[in-house]
Design brief:
alpha+beta, Neuraminidase, five-stranded antiparallel sheet, four-stranded antiparallel sheet, 9 helices, 36 strands, 16% helix, globular
């Protein structure tokens, strides 16, 4: 073993001697190479940490360098103003750097562009009112409808008619001097023309049956209108001075109404039920005939109405009320045929074009509030409010003329006419301060409990008288429900906190609707996510002196009891056709006196008491609790309903 160690040591010694003898001589000039630090082997898991640290250090160094540069006196500070550079400026070339063992670097001069102030111009927002002019419309106030004209840019409209009868459906003559309108001031519905410079009114039609909804021909010589003859709506034309016509354009058994004249003078657009639902049709006056009327909208599930041509005839606007939200559409046209798809512009109804064709005026309703709005086609979301009212607002029509804000002549006489209140509540307050401030009054009505609060009984009585005068029969003389005792328990799925207990509700007689020959028709109206009902009373006299024809198909509640199970699940169905004859809009009359309809319950399709087309309430802006303490002591309410 010792011999092997000595032999190994001798072998190592010989190798060292051999390396020393074979090593080359060093050069005369020594080049010192940079020392390379050998990196110790690391695992794959630790290597990213070194890389991250390396990057972080470099970022910090760079940031520190930038700070130093900003603090250096020779560096020009740039403000935060937006600078626009015109062209590519010439930079000063960097000097050549000479490398020496101890190199000294000359800094490159900093290039500073000349600041240029730029005015930022926002994208122009289209102004829907830029064309100016005036919008005529119908407004219902104090139980009656009259014509008003609002010159754009002015705060309030000017009333242009003031008659105890209804005036509605204004239509501008192309020169803006006259307004055609519908009125029953002569005892039945006819067409009239108001001359704005003089205030003179001329009657155009004299038929005993309904005439209305006129619009002008482009030359201002003719009127196209809807007329009810032989229990059907059709379209007619007549010379504005009555010298020629009437000339019948349609004879289809379905209702045709709401006509409008195209700018070329040779086409008429109108609404019709001839396809099974409401659609917009166009008829050429060169090819008159029901079989030649063109279905412009041709929809199966929509209900289009209120057509309005642009001043150039290259598009037509209308609205659809089939889905609970009334939406305005514009359909581009080519030779009075659809060109592409219609464009939805948003919520609204009854559109009317501006004189330059760039904007639309329309009506938008939210609850009891009605708004007259105007929007540009290019920016529909920008909708300046031109007018708002709690009364019913309809039939806008836009003209280029402008009325002076301070009325003169006949307009001044109208403005100075004092309004007579529709009714006045006569209230008898109780004298005992320990009792409720108001009492319940018994009415001469056939009902289980014929009582109403003293705060609303006068409004009911005058409404009842108004219905008798307009419909010719006493619809409110017999009621299914009126006052409800405070201790009465609710039916299944119903609340105990009813307005009947507050003496502010009544239910009409449902038998008038459900009879085989109904005297009352109900039209379903979906508004948002709720279902409402519009109530129409058949006039006792059917010669045109009372009421007017229906334009919508009523709902058939009896279908739910038939053999088809689909109708039960749907809560009924629409009737086969619009009933013939003349009807009174009871829903509108009731609203005039503060009595509002109530929406159906969510389960109305399968739960008959949830339909509630019969129920009307008068809240007078009170909460239910506030209404209850008017007729009950607080303790009695607490005893009946508990601490709620």
């Amino acid at each position: 073993r010792r011999q092997r160690r000595l032999q190994s040591a001798w072998t190592i010694r010989k190798a060292k001697i051999r390396v020393a003898l074979l090593r080359p001589s060093p050069p005369k000039a020594v080049l010192v190479a940079p020392q390379i630090i050998k990196e110790e082997p690391t695992s794959l898991s630790t290597r990213p940490r070194y890389i991250t640290a390396f990057v972080t250090v470099n970022v910090l160094v760079l940031a520190f360098s930038l700070i130093i540069t900003q603090l250096t006196p020779n560096t020009t500070n740039l403000d935060a103003t937006l600078i626009a550079s015109s062209g590519d400026p010439t930079r000063t070339p960097s000097p050549t750097v000479t490398v020496t063992p101890s190199p000294t670097f000359t800094p490159t001069p900093t290039f500073t562009p000349t600041p240029a102030t730029v005015a930022l111009t926002p994208w122009p927002t289209p102004d829907p009112l830029v064309s100016g002019g005036s919008v005529a419309f119908t407004m219902r106030q104090n139980g009656n409808s009259d014509l008003y004209v609002l010159s754009l840019g002015q705060e309030r409209p000017v009333r242009v008619t003031n008659h105890p009868a209804v005036d509605r459906d204004p239509a501008w003559r192309p020169d803006g001097r006259q307004l055609a309108f519908t009125s029953d001031r002569g005892g039945n519905w006819d067409l009239y023309i108001l001359d704005l410079p003089t205030g003179d009114i001329e009657r155009v039609t004299t038929d005993l049956e309904f005439d209305g909804g006129a619009t002008w021909s482009p030359d201002g010589q003719w009127l196209v209108y809807e007329a009810y003859r032989n229990n059907n709506f059709d379209i007619y034309i007549i010379k504005a001075d009555g010298s020629e016509g009437p000339i019948r354009l349609t004879e289809h058994p379905a209702a045709d109404f709401e006509p409008v004249w195209a700018p070329d003078g040779r086409h008429i657009a109108f609404t019709s039920w001839r396809s099974g639902n409401k659609d917009i049709f166009i008829m050429s006056l060169d090819e008159v005939g029901d079989d030649r009327a063109y279905n412009l909208t041709a929809s199966t599930a929509s209900f289009e109405d209120g057509a309005a041509f642009t001043p150039t005839g290259d598009a037509i606007a209308y609205y659809d009320d089939s889905n609970g939200f009334r939406l305005v559409y514009v359909q581009p046209l080519s030779n009075y045929r659809p060109q592409g798809e219609p464009v939805s512009l948003g919520q609204g109804q009854q559109p009317a074009w501006s004189p330059n064709g760039d904007s639309l005026a329309y009506v938008h309703t939210i609850g009891a509030q009605n708004y007259l709005l105007a929007s540009s086609i290019d920016a529909w979301s920008v909708a300046p409010q031109t007018f708002a009212t709690t009364g019913q607002l309809e039939d806008p029509a836009w003209s280029a003329i402008t009325l002076v804000q301070e009325p003169t002549g006949f307009l001044k006489d109208i403005a100075n006419t004092a309004e007579t209140p529709l009714f006045t509540e006569t209230i008898s307050r109780t004298q005992n301060t320990n009792e409720a401030p108001y009492t319940l009054l018994e009415l001469n009505v056939e009902a289980p409990y014929p009582f109403l609060s003293d705060r609303v009984e006068q409004s009911f009585l005058v409404l009842r008288q108004r219905v008798v005068a307009e419909a010719g029969w006493d619809y409110l003389g017999q009621l299914d429900h009126m006052y409800e005792p405070i201790t009465e328990r609710p039916g299944p799925g119903q609340t105990a906190q009813t307005w009947h207990k507050a003496g502010r509700a009544f239910d009409t007689n449902a038998d008038y609707v459900l009879a085989f020959t109904p005297q009352v028709e109900i039209v379903r109206e979906d508004i948002g996510n709720e279902t409402y009902w519009h109530v129409y009373l058949q006039a006792a006299v059917q010669d045109g002196s009372l009421g007017e024809p229906l334009r919508d198909i009523p709902w058939d509640f009896r279908a739910r009891f038939g053999a088809d199970p689909r109708y039960y699940d749907q809560g009924g169905s629409v009737k086969d056709a619009i009933p013939s004859g003349y009807y009174i809009d009871f829903t509108a009359l009731a609203a005039d006196y503060g009595w509002e309809r109530t929406p159906a319950l969510n389960n109305w399709r399968t739960y008959f008491p949830g339909i509630r087309f019969w129920q009307f309430e008068n809240h007078q802006a009170l909460t239910w609790e506030e209404a209850m303490v008017e007729i009950y002591p607080v303790q009695e309410i607490l005893n009946a309903f508990g601490q709620q």
